[in-house]
C-alpha cells in the first residue's frame, strides 16, 4: 500500500487549511465567502488511482492521470489563508500574478540557509531580486536562447544520451533514475563549466542532495551530524569540481557560466554557490521529470504510440503536458514588499506588505479556467485559454522563471525518444515515490527498465 503523508507548509510543518473568510482578518472582495473550516490536506506516494487512465486525444478516461498522488481535489477557492496567516494561492491567475509581481521577494527554496552567509558573499541569483537580479538574468540569457540550445547543446545531449543507453544495452537493465541523472549531469556540467571534475561527481551530488534532509544545528546530536555533513559535502564539491574548473578557466576563457561569473569578479565561494544552485535546477529536477515522463509513457500505450509517431514538436508538446500535470517543484514561497491585489473570480484580494504567500503550482496548473476541461488528464496540445506556457507554471513565471526550461525539455526528449526505440524496452518494477514537503517536490526511485539480453555471440550496436 502506498504510504501517506501530511502536506507541509513551506516552513516544514503541517498546517490546517481554511478558506479566507471570517476570523482571518480583513475580508476582501475576492474572498470566496466560505466559513473557515480546518482540514488536513494529504498526499500519498505512488500511482494515481486507476492505473494510467491517460488519454492524449480527448477521449473519456479516468478522472486523473497523475502518477504522483497529490491528494484530494484542488480547493475551489483560488486564494485561501492558513491559521498561521500565510496566504495560500491555488488559482492560476493569482499564482501568476504573484510570480510576475515586482513587489515580492524570494522566501523559500532554502533561503534561510543563504541568509546565514556572510554579507560579503554575493547571493546566488536564485536568492536575489530587483535590478541586480534582472541584470544578471539579462547577461546570462545568451546561454539559454533557443538557437544556442539547438546549435550548441543538441549534439552534446545526443552523445550523453547514447552513453547512458549503452549502459542499459550492456547490462540489460538499469535504474532509470541513474540513467537520467547521468544525462542531466552531463548536459548541465557543460553549460555551467564543470567539465574538469575529478571522478565521482554523481556520488558527490547524491550526497549533497539526499532523499531525506536533516536540520543542521548545534544543540542536538542529530543537528550536529547534519551540520558537519552539509559542510563536508560543500567542501567535497568545491575541491573536486569547482576549484578544478576555476583553475582551468583562469588558464583559458570558456563560453560558459563559470567564465561569466569570473568576469564579474565572483569569488570561488560565490561561484560554488551559483554552481550548486544550477545543479539543483538543472540536474536534480531534470532527473525526476525524465522519470515521471517515462512512467506515463510506459503505462499508457496510446500516449506512447502518440509520442513515438509524433515529430519533435509533437513530442515536446507531450512532455510539456506531462510536466504541467506533474510539476517537479510544486511549492514556491514569496514575501510581499508592497501591497498586492490577487485576481479571483469574485474580485481582487488584497495582500499587505510583509506577508507570506505559498503558491501551490500543482493546483494552479489544473485550474480549469486556465487549462480547460478535464485538467487532470494528459492532453498534448490542449487549448490553453488564459495564455500560460504549455507546462503551466511548472517552470515558474516572471523574473525567476527557469532560464533553462528549453534545455530541460529538449534533453528529456533526446533521451526518451531514443529509450523508446529500444526493442523490447519495458518497465519491470513499480516505482517508489518520496516527497520533499518544503518544495512540494517528489523523487522517483526503483523504476527499473530492461531490454531483452542479446543472444550469446551477438554484438550490441552502439
Walkthrough of the structure:
- By secondary structure, the protein is an alpha+beta fold.
- It has a single domain (4-193, 254-450), classed as Orthogonal Bundle (Cytochrome p450).
- It is 41% helix and 11% strand.
- It contains 14 helices and 14 strands.
- The strands form 5 sheets. The chain has a 5-stranded mixed beta sheet.
- Helix 9 (268-299) crosses helix 10, helix 9 (268-299) packs across helix 14 and helix 11 (312-325) crosses helix 14.
- The protein is globular and about 70 Å long.
- It starts with a strand and ends in a 12-residue tail after the last strand.
Low-confidence stretches: 1-31, 33-55
Span between termini: 40 Å
Strand order of the largest sheet: 3-4-10-7-5
Structural class: alpha+beta
Number of domain modules: 1
What is the overall silhouette?
Answer: globular
Helix content percent band: 40-55%
How many DSSP E strands?
14
Please name the CATH topology. Cytochrome p450
CATH-level-4 superfamily name: Cytochrome P450
Features:
462 residues; alpha+beta; Cytochrome p450; five-stranded mixed beta sheet; three-stranded antiparallel beta sheet; 14 helices; 14 strands; disordered N terminus; monooxygenase activity; iron; oxidoreductase
Question: Topology of this structure?
Answer:
Layout: E1 4-6, E2 42-44, E3 79-81, E4 87-89, H1 92-100, E5 104-106, H2 111-114, H3 131-140, H4 146-171, E6 173-175, H5 176-192, H6 201-208, H7 221-251, H8 257-263, H9 268-299, H10 301-309, H11 312-325, E7 331-336, E8 340-342, E9 349-351, E10 356-360, H12 361-364, H13 368-371, H14 405-419, E11 426-427, E12 432-436, E13 441-445, E14 448-450
Parallel strand pairs: 4-10
Antiparallel strand pairs: 1-2, 3-4, 5-7, 6-14, 7-10, 8-9, 11-14, 12-13
Amino acid at each position: 500500500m502506498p504510504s501517506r503523508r501530511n502536506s507541509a507548509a513551506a516552513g516544514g510543518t503541517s498546517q490546517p487549511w481554511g478558506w479566507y473568510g471570517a476570523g482571518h482578518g480583513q475580508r476582501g472582495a475576492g474572498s470566496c465567502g466560505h466559513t473557515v473550516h480546518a482540514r488536513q490536506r494529504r498526499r500519498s506516494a505512488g500511482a494515481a488511482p486507476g492505473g494510467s487512465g491517460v488519454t492524449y486525444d480527448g477521449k473519456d478516461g479516468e478522472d486523473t492521470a497523475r502518477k504522483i498522488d497529490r491528494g484530494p481535489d484542488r480547493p475551489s477557492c483560488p486564494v485561501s489563508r492558513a491559521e498561521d496567516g500565510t496566504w495560500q494561492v491555488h488559482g492560476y491567475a493569482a499564482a501568476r500574478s504573484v510570480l510576475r509581481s515586482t513587489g515580492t521577494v524570494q522566501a523559500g527554496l532554502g533561503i534561510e540557509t543563504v541568509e546565514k552567509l556572510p554579507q560579503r558573499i554575493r547571493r546566488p541569483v536564485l536568492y536575489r531580486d530587483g535590478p541586480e537580479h534582472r541584470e544578471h538574468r539579462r547577461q546570462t540569457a545568451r546561454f539559454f536562447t533557443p538557437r544556442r540550445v539547438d546549435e550548441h547543446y543538441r549534439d552534446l545531449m545526443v552523445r550523453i544520451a547514447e552513453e547512458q543507453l549503452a549502459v542499459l544495452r550492456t547490462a540489460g537493465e538499469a535504474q532509470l533514475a541513474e540513467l537520467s541523472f547521468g544525462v542531466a549531469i552531463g548536459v548541465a556540467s557543460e553549460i555551467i563549466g564543470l567539465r574538469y571534475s575529478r571522478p565521482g561527481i554523481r556520488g558527490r551530488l547524491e550526497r549533497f542532495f539526499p532523499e531525506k534532509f536533516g536540520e543542521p544545528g548545534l544543540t542536538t546530536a542529530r543537528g550536529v551530524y547534519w551540520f558537519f555533513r552539509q559542510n563536508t559535502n560543500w567542501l567535497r564539491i568545491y575541491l573536486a569540481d569547482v576549484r578544478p574548473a576555476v583553475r582551468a578557466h583562469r588558464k583559458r576563457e570558456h563560453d560558459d557560466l563559470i567564465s561569466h561569473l569570473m568576469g564579474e569578479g565572483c569569488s570561488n565561494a560565490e561561484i560554488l554557490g551559483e554552481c550548486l544552485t544550477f545543479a539543483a535546477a538543472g540536474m536534480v529536477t531534470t532527473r525526476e521529470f525524465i522519470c515521471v515522463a517515462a512512467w506515463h509513457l510506459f503505462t499508457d500505450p496510446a500516449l506512447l504510440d502518440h509520442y513515438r509517431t509524433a515529430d519533435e514538436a509533437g513530442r515536446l508538446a507531450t512532455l510539456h503536458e506531462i510536466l504541467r500535470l506533474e510539476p517537479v517543484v510544486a511549492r514556491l514561497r514569496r514575501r510581499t514588499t508592497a501591497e498586492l491585489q490577487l485576481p479571483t473570480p469574485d474580485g481582487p484580494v488584497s495582500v499587505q506588505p510583509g506577508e507570506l504567500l505559498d503558491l501551490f503550482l500543482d493546483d494552479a496548473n489544473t485550474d480549469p479556467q486556465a487549462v480547460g476541461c478535464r485538467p487532470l488528464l494528459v492532453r498534448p496540445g490542449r487549448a490553453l485559454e488564459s495564455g500560460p506556457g504549455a507546462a503551466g507554471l511548472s517552470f515558474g513565471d516572471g523574473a525567476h522563471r527557469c532560464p533553462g526550461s528549453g534545455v530541460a525539455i529538449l534533453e528529456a526528449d533526446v533521451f526518451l525518444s531514443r529509450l523508446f526505440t529500444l526493442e523490447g524496452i519495458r518497465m519491470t518494477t513499480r516505482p517508489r515515490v518520496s516527497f520533499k514537503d518544503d518544495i512540494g517536490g517528489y523523487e522517483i526511485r526503483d523504476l527499473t527498465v530492461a531490454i531483452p539480453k542479446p543472444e550469446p555471440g551477438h554484438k550490441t550496436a552502439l
